[in-house]
Design brief:
Helix content of chain A: 25-40%
Largest sheet of chain A: 5 strands, mixed
Strand content of chain B: 15-25%
Number of strands of chain A: 6
Radius of gyration of chain A: 19 Å
CATH superfamily of the largest domain in chain B: Aldehyde oxidase/xanthine dehydrogenase, molybdopterin binding domain
Number of domains of chain B: 3
Shape of chain B: globular
Strand order of the largest sheet of chain A: 3-2-6-4-5
Oligomer: heterodimer
């Protein structure tokens, strides 16, 4: 097994996460998600991701990395894309949180329509996050350049590497939106 | 994951499959005004069915459900197998549904894995093509017989098209749903008549994927989305080095975290049981564990690589040989008209890093007291079922699998040791109290568990020596490979190590491919395209160097060496056509070529690159032209998607991915911040062309991967003069 006799044979670890000590204070709060208010009793530092998934069972928002590196957990807070895995739930009290289950309107229809038309998803696990980032982009910028698309979507990993279709779908959605408005 | 030659006689396809079953679904309702093909949502179960376990289930609401013996992890078997059934059934695509088959080798075994149920090796279409067509054709015949009987007309006068059963002379017409009860009473035909491929209306035609809508709206459910009342979320604190064991642990602080209900030592580490995910994460973080490294692999990846490179300095166990390579190369060295070359290639550990980390739910089976039910994206239920049964001390029949769609795999969910279900079983049974009182457990890996968790594509080293004369003919080829076998074998030739090299496509009078198998304490595993991940690179980069050194064109030179390889030639010629080969590259750009066969499919790719400087000088791939020959193309749309995705997957690894072990054997990378993969800005525009073929269909999940890295490396050498011997391009010290 290639063990090295000079290496100390015990090593302490204190868990894989290295953030600050757990905040165990619970708080009662009201969270507005997809237009509905929810009464919660949660640890204040509990990430929005786990509130959405474990408490509200809105499972379209996915866990991928926990450190805002993959975008699978992308939701909208007041219309802007945000990574739910690093957003403490206390920080979004009183804000308008929207998940993939609650998107609606012209931009969402154009984006999801383009996604379906191009058959973008493969495994599909990252796609809620991709769609949420794309909607947020097109809400902010109706006619993005390829570079703007790439910048806006670069935080969303897809390990199936559906990127060529994602890029084309965002382009198509922008065109559809322009044609219908 | 190759297997014995399958028995492709049609008669066997329905044998042991519980025959073909037409289920009677009661109370099913349409899900919307516009029927679209869809995955079956468990909560919308149509209720009691006549006999639920076979390949096809037709419900009274006209829906036709493919029960997929292949797990859907993005590669498209739900769509592909449903296409095969729908074609012979003459179903309308919009009425098709798909769901996963449970674990049952007898009915759902992979014909290419000696009957063991599992998905991998790009086999889903290859082993299902005749079987699913036969299943669809049998169902069609039973429906036709039922209609004939009920209408009092000969079967020969009945037509079926787009899900409608018609009798032209009497003007009668009905859907499938109205016939299911009568059809279920018909005998199952053993050898139903299959269509002439010239009459296909779905196979080879453009169809939307069956699962796209659900995957675009967030409705698609994965294992992580499973919840049970009273369920505990479990996370395991794992050893910091492979093979380290728990020496002692202190759970005081972990148990003080609200929501943490228990902490138990299990063979895999220390398990934290909590009432929700965040509590489990916090509880695990608060654990204090002392580890015993006595049996751990403590070497760094740099040390391991050096060992592997040392091994290839001499020939190993011979995997294939023709002529006399030593003499051939020695003679060549003295000839003016021959160029000799030598190269060493090294490849890093690679993690699969699929988007959904490993996860699984285990509970006492609500439908079978005394049994357990596992709900997860099991890629190899045929292998995992007996392992879990053994872990729990249960007979295999008492273990049921409800297979889920998986958020990617790339090989990771199919392991030889079935380690994940052992973890599931170990954490499940470590609960205190009577077995009947065990709470359902969702065992969740984090990204850190995944990246540091091993089962990597092994470190591999190659040494290649070769000679080519100035006419472009090979004189000799001597390739030595050092790798680690997935199951630790050392004394035999292992196909998954030498595949793609030992069957060198290029004509040469003298050939030797040999192999060293080395051991490490790091668990390793296949990774999308397996041995071809490195053999494809070494072969295609080395041949390109010889062709360049002898003044041959990369495409023409390859074609000349592939005289007796028509399918290699076919894809290479098609890719060259797409790329408009022969034109001068624009300033600051270059083209690179590679062609490779894997899993019975042939793929050629031509990459156009330029130089990028961020984060370091490296290739930026602008465009890729790709041609694929996978026999009869069942779903062109899925084939293109797999080529596009395979190109991105292979390119991301070639540019950025490497898992380092630091001194002490600790994985350096733990998440997507440092374990880098392709992101959208690096994705080239891809054009795919599919060869029209009447050969038996082969898979596409993996074959798109091998050519891209060598194509880019070849373009890079032509653009910069710098040879690429080590992957990834962008490396940390």
């Amino acid at each position: 097994m290639g063990s090295n006799p000079t290496t100390p044979t015990t090593t302490p670890t204190t868990g894989l996460l290295t953030a600050c000590e757990p905040e165990t204070e619970y708080m009662k709060m009201k969270l507005r998600v997809n237009g509905r208010d929810h009464e919660l009793d949660v640890p204040a530092d509990m990430p929005l991701l786990w509130v959405l998934r474990d408490r509200l069972r809105l499972t379209g928002t996915k866990f991928g990395c926990g450190i805002a590196q993959c975008g699978a957990c992308t939701v909208h807070v007041n219309g802007r894309a945000q990574r739910a895995c690093v957003t403490p739930v206390a920080a979004v009290e009183g804000q308008d949180v929207r998940t993939i289950e609650g998107v609606e309107g012209e931009t969402a229809e154009a984006v999801q329509g383009a996604w379906v038309a191009l058959d973008v998803p493969q495994c599909g696990y990252c796609q809620s996050g991709q769609v949420m980032s794309a909607i947020s982009l097109l809400e902010a910028k109706a006619d993005p350049s390829d570079e703007e698309i790439e910048n806006a979507m670069s935080g969303n990993l897809c390990r199936c590497n559906c990127y060529a279709r994602i890029r084309q779908a965002v382009r198509d959605a922008a065109e559809t939106k322009e044609a219908t408005s | 994951m190759s297997g014995a030659n399958p028995d492709l006689s049609r008669r066997n396809f329905l044998k042991g499959s519980g025959a073909l079953v037409i289920g009677i679904g009661l109370g099913a309702c349409a899900t919307g005004d516009q029927p679209v093909p869809a995955i079956v949502n468990a909560s919308a179960d149509p209720g009691p069915t006549f006999e639920p376990n076979a390949f096809v289930r037709i419900a009274s609401d006209d829906t036709v459900t493919l029960v997929s013996k292949h797990m859907e992890m993005g590669q498209g078997p739900y769509t592909g197998l449903a296409t095969l059934v729908a074609e012979e059934l003459d179903a309308d695509w919009a009425q098709m549904r798909a769901e996963a088959a449970p674990a049952d080798d007898a009915r759902f075994g992979n014909l290419l894995f000696r009957g063991i149920q599992g998905t991998g090796g790009s086999t889903a279409i290859r082993n299902s093509y005749m079987q699913m067509r036969t299943a669809g054709a049998a169902a069609r015949q039973m429906l036709v017989e039922a209609a004939a009987e009920s209408w009092g007309v000969p079967t020969s006068e009945i037509d079926v098209a787009k899900g409608r059963v018609t009798h032209a002379r009497s003007g009668r017409e009905t859907g499938f749903g109205a016939l299911v009860e009568a059809a279920a009473k018909r005998p199952v035909p053993e050898s139903p008549t299959l269509k002439d491929p010239a009459d296909f209306v779905l196979i080879g035609h453009e169809l939307p994927r069956i699962d796209t809508v659900d995957k675009t709206t967030g409705a698609a459910k994965f294992t992580i989305d499973q919840f049970r009342e009273d369920m505990l979320v479990v996370m395991i604190e794992r050893p910091p080095a492979f093979g380290a064991k728990v020496a002692s642990f202190d759970a005081t602080e972990a148990l003080a975290v609200p929501g943490v209900v228990d902490v138990r030592e299990v063979p895999q580490g220390v398990a934290v049981y909590a009432d929700e995910t965040w509590s489990a994460l916090q509880g695990r973080r608060a654990l204090r564990v002392e580890w015993d490294d006595a049996e751990a692999e403590t070497r760094s990846s740099a040390t391991i690589k050096a060992t592997f490179r040392d091994a290839v300095q001499r020939p190993g166990l011979v995997a294939s040989e023709q002529g006399d390579v030593e003499t051939g190369l020695a003679e060549a060295a003295g000839r003016d008209d021959v160029v000799t070359a030598e190269a060493e290639f090294t490849f890093p550990f690679l993690a699969h890093a699929m988007m959904e980390p490993l996860d699984g739910l285990i509970e006492n089976d609500p439908e079978n007291p005394g049994g357990v039910l596992v709900t997860n994206g099991s890629q190899g239920p045929g292998r995992e079922r007996p392992h879990l049964a053994q872990e729990l001390g249960l007979p295999q029949e008492q273990v049921r699998f409800d297979v889920q769609m998986a958020g990617g795999s790339f090989g990771r969910r199919s392991t030889f040791d079935a380690h994940f279900v052992h973890e599931l079983g170990a954490t499940f049974k470590a609960q205190p109290g009577a077995p009947a009182d065990r709470r359902p457990i969702k065992l969740q890996w984090t990204r850190e568990d995944d990246i540091r968790g091993g089962y990597y594509r092994p470190i591999v080293a190659h040494r290649v020596r070769g000679a080519m004369d100035r006419s472009g003919a090979l004189v000799g080829w001597d390739q030595t490979i050092a790798a680690q076998d997935f199951v630790g074998r050392t004394g035999e030739v292992v196909t998954s190590v030498v595949e793609g090299a030992s069957n060198l496509a290029y004509t040469t009078p003298n050939l030797r491919v040999s192999q060293h198998l080395l051991k490490t304490g790091v668990p390793v595993l296949w990774w999308r395209s397996v041995g071809h991940t490195h053999t494809g690179f070494a072969v295609e980069v080395f041949i390109d160097r010889l062709l360049e050194a002898t003044g041959q064109d990369p495409v023409e030179g390859r074609l000349a060496l592939l005289a007796d390889r028509p399918r290699h030639r076919g894809v290479l010629e098609r890719a060259a056509e797409l790329a408009n080969w022969g034109r001068k590259p624009a300033g600051g750009t270059a083209f690179g070529v590679a062609v490779h066969e894997s899993f019975g499919s042939f793929v050629a790719q031509i990459a156009e690159i330029e130089i990028a400087t961020v984060p370091v000088e490296r290739p930026k791939v602008r465009r890729v032209w790709c041609a694929v020959d996978c026999g009869v193309p069942v779903n062109p749309n899925v084939i293109r998607a797999q080529m596009e995705g395979g190109i991105g997957f292979g390119l991301g690894a070639a540019l950025y991915s490497e898992l380092h072990l630091d001194e002490g054997g600790r994985p350096r990378e733990s998440n997507f911040d440092r374990y880098q993969n392709l992101r959208i800005a690096d994705m080239p525009e891809v054009e795919v062309s599919i060869i029209r073929s009447s050969e038996a269909p082969t898979g596409v999940g993996e074959p798109g991967v091998p050519p891209i890295a060598p194509a880019v490396a070849n373009a890079w050498r032509r653009l910069t003069g710098k040879a690429v011997d080590t992957l990834p391009f962008v490396r940390e010290a």
